[in-house]
Specification:
The chain is mostly beta strands and 337 residues long. It contains no helices and 18 strands.
């Protein structure tokens, strides 16, 4: 018969940063004190409507506040509701559907003597998917997802482009929205598993770092986050996992990204800080019953960054590609028999 269970998740975070930046950066604000408070609460109800249909409904409550130099206060309160369901269409296929509605209010207070200014916005996202088994060892998943992201309290400040110390409130950042289509192919064998994932993501009003020239600064060397442009990404991800003998596992992943700015004066350029290729390969070797040896290599291809004082018309500065190696030893306490 039908069943349901209730779950809760929540948390609180408080941080305070104090920086005397002028002691080593003469152009920086002499003293910057920043407080940040965040609280979230997430109740959810998960249940089985019939033997073929399951559903989840829940709420996301989020409160955040940032305060710089006993003024320049930004606070957010957000309430979201969502519903997802999955239905078994046949012994080898399922379909899923989801909807999420969120309302978020930003409140700005320039200083303790000023009145609060507030605005509230509502956005809705949807998801639709289908998954099926082609054979006992091969499965396919396809779907479409719309999404959005509101700016965080940290992104609602101007800041010094060299010291990154917040200077004043920047209320002009709006939410970014996205649409994604994806297809996944998975194949499993006795000692190996492979997958190929193709994603196409279009974003409107992408939030990112803007140099002084893009922020209409009042203070010298002032920068900000802003809704920079619309973008398009095509991402192909290939993964493989192998079992090599009774005590060794190997894995590999490759990401290939074709990214492009789709609006504004930099149309056609690659998106800053997005490499074209990234790869990861590793070995997990069990030495004995309580010890494992891990070794990984991480590759990130070259990418471009936005210049602090100019737009991307000069394509920004190039960041070379790099390879990092990780080697670790893990000890696992022996369980009492």
């Amino acid at each position: 018969g039908a069943f349901a269970r209730l779950s809760f998740n929540g948390g609180y975070d408080f941080s305070q940063n104090y920086a005397d930046m002028q002691s080593f950066l003469p152009w920086a604000t002499a003293i910057s004190t920043r407080e940040s408070k965040k609280f979230f609460f997430q109740p959810a109800l998960i249940g089985e409507i019939t033997q073929q249909i399951t559903a989840r409904v829940g709420l996301d409550v989020f409160l955040a506040e940032a305060n710089v130099n006993a003024g320049n206060q930004v606070s957010q309160d957000s309430l979201a509701a969502y519903f997802t369901t999955e239905a078994r269409l046949s012994p080898t296929s399922t379909a899923s559907l989801g909807i999420r509605r969120q309302g978020l209010a930003n409140q700005f207070q320039i200083d303790t003597a000023s009145a609060r200014e507030s605005d509230r916005q509502y956005l809705t996202a949807y998801s639709l998917g289908w998954a099926g088994r082609v054979s006992d060892s091969t499965s396919v998943r396809v779907g479409a997802v719309s999404g959005f992201r509101f700016p965080t309290t940290d992104e609602l400040y101007y800041f010094n482009a060299m010291s990154f110390v917040p200077t004043r409130i920047h209320p002009g950042v709006g939410p970014m929205t996205s649409k994604e289509f994806y297809a996944t192919l998975e194949h499993r064998r006795k000692a190996a598993a492979y997958s190929a994932i193709l994603r196409s993501i279009s974003t409107a009003g992408e939030i990112g770092f803007s140099s002084s020239a893009g922020c209409s600064p009042v203070i010298a060397n002032e920068a900000c986050n802003a809704n920079l442009y619309d973008t398009q990404r095509a991402i192909l991800t290939l993964t493989g996992q192998w079992t090599i003998g009774p005590s060794t596992k190997a894995n590999f992943s490759l990401d290939w990204v074709d990214s492009e700015i789709r609006s504004g004066q930099n149309t056609g350029f690659r998106i800053p800080y997005v490499p074209r290729t990234a790869a990861r390969a590793g070995i997990d070797q069990r030495l004995n019953s309580i010890t494992r040896l891990l070794g990984y290599a991480h590759y990130r291809g070259r990418m471009f960054q936005n210049d602090y004082f100019f737009n991307l018309a000069d394509r920004g500065y190039e960041i070379p590609g790099r390879v990092l190696f990780d080697i670790g030893l893990i000890g696992e306490p022996r369980k009492n028999s």
